[in-house]
Write a structure and sequence with these properties.
By secondary structure, the protein is mainly α. The protein has 8 helices and no strands. Helix 4 packs across helix 5.
């Protein structure tokens, strides 16, 4: 199961490498590695992203740090432990219902939730007010 989780991270990283302005060699330098072996291994799913490199990697890739960090945590630890970390560090900032909505939106938008513009707010209000 750990390999599958590594492959999720690998897929996410590869997808964002294709979109970002940096080459693998430049990302390697930004992460503080001497050669591309670690980054190449991450992209193949052979290596895990070091936890202390998640922030630098998310900045280099221009991706959502929280999404990458959760993927990386899931590659290192079991789901129950990661869920416990989320609960502890959420610090009661959202109710259970709010958290369900947040999780739904993150899943729907692959972690890249769009800005809540006035147009999107109007559409959401219309959707919520539709009769059943």
């Amino acid at each position: 199961m750990s390999l599958n989780r590594n492959l999720e991270v690998a897929s996410f990283v590869r997808e964002h490498i294709e979109k970002c302005d940096y080459k693998v060699e430049e990302i390697t330098l930004l992460l503080g590695f001497q050669n591309t072996e670690v980054v190449d291994g991450i992209c193949r799913g052979d290596r895990k992203v070091p936890l202390d490199k998640v922030n630098a990697l998310s900045e280099a890739l221009g991706c959502e740090r929280r999404r990458l960090f959760l993927l990386v945590l899931n590659s290192w630890f079991d789901t129950d432990f990661v869920k416990m970390l989320e609960d502890v560090f959420a610090d009661g900032s959202a109710s259970a219902v709010e958290q369900e909505w947040i999780n739904f939106l993150r899943e729907r938008y692959s972690g890249n939730i769009p800005e809540l513009t006035p147009q999107l707010q109007r559409r959401f209000r219309l959707l919520v007010s539709l009769p059943r």
